[in-house]
Amino acid sequence: MSYKKLFIGTLCTFCTLIATAQEVNYKVDMVGIGSTNILDTYISPEKYSGTELRILTQSHRQWLKRPAWNSQTTFSIAFQHAAQRADNSNELGGLISAGYAIRHGWQLNDSWRIEAGGQAEGGVGFLYNTRNSNNPAQARAYLHIGPDVMSVWRFPLFRKQSFLRYELSAPLLGLMFSPNYGQSYYEIFSRGNYDHNIVPTTPFCAPSLRQQLTLDVTVKRLTFRIGYLGDYQQAEVNKLKYHTYSHMLLIGLVRPLFR
Questions:
Q1: Residue 13 pLDDT
Q2: Contact 176/146 with Cβ under 8 angstroms?
Q3: Helix, strand, coil content of the chain in percent (nearest 5)
Q4: CA 20 to 30 Å from 176, out of 56, 95, 127, 202?
Q5: Cβ(208)–Cβ(246) under 8 Å?
Q6: Whole-prediction pTM value?
């Protein structure tokens, strides 16, 4: 075999490995920006609308010993700035969250793959109202588990392999922190007066949903991801109502992960 044929064969094998790695083992760093709507009746009965910025990292790995199974880790940091209709007060929010999902995949044909499994997620954050003097801030903390599904469609675009992904997750069981109605943070942390501040959550008291639709497009040697993230989190516990509805445009860079 000539060196030329050996070089071409090695190059083709390397390109195939890169394409396979991008399909099943990859990491993507994304930035999302869009609108948010916030309600927290512990701070204010008014709804606040504004802008959210989110930094999101996802790593997707196929299991070596069980190729039908894969895992996905997610880490995100979100910042929110919102104002009420009268525009005389603002709310500032922040949230750090991390999740781990395990899914089983089924290859329906050469182009379409579906995955289903479960996800555990936890987060801590805050919400601060610039106008309030009595209860100016609210702490956020939660941990929940629930189903997670994904559909992946592979197709050629501009003579390159592209992927269209749709992911859907919803919390099923969990725990969240919440002060009780009329309870101050001084009572909770300074006096140690516990009053059902760790609350179990189910779809009946905290119906929430997150969906993500993304497209991977390769331009020369770089693979970009663009898409939409819809995050709808809400709860009604301890006679208090809370929700955050976010709609964001995502853009990021996909990198292969090699074992």
A1: 39
A2: no
A3: 10, 65, 25
A4: 56
A5: no
A6: 0.86
Q: What gap in Å lies between CA 1 and CA 18, rounded to an integer? A: 25
CB 88 within 8 A of CB 130: no
Quote the CA–CA distance of 83 and 90 in Å, as a whole number: 4
* Phi, psi (deg, nearest 5) at residue 18: -65, -45
Token digits for 245? 């509805």
Residues 6+ apart with CB under 8 A from 252: 28, 29, 30, 31, 56, 224, 225, 226
Q: Cβ contacts of residue 18 below 8 Å, gap of 6+?
A: 256
Q: By three-state DSSP, how is residue 207 classified?
A: coil
DSSP type of residue 208: -
What confidence category does residue 15 fall into, taking pLDDT thresholds of 50, 70 and 90?
very low
Q: Phi and psi dihedrals of 43, rounded to 5?
A: -95, -45
3-state secondary structure (DSSP) of residue 3:
helix
The span from the CA of 121 to the CA of 74, in Å, is 9
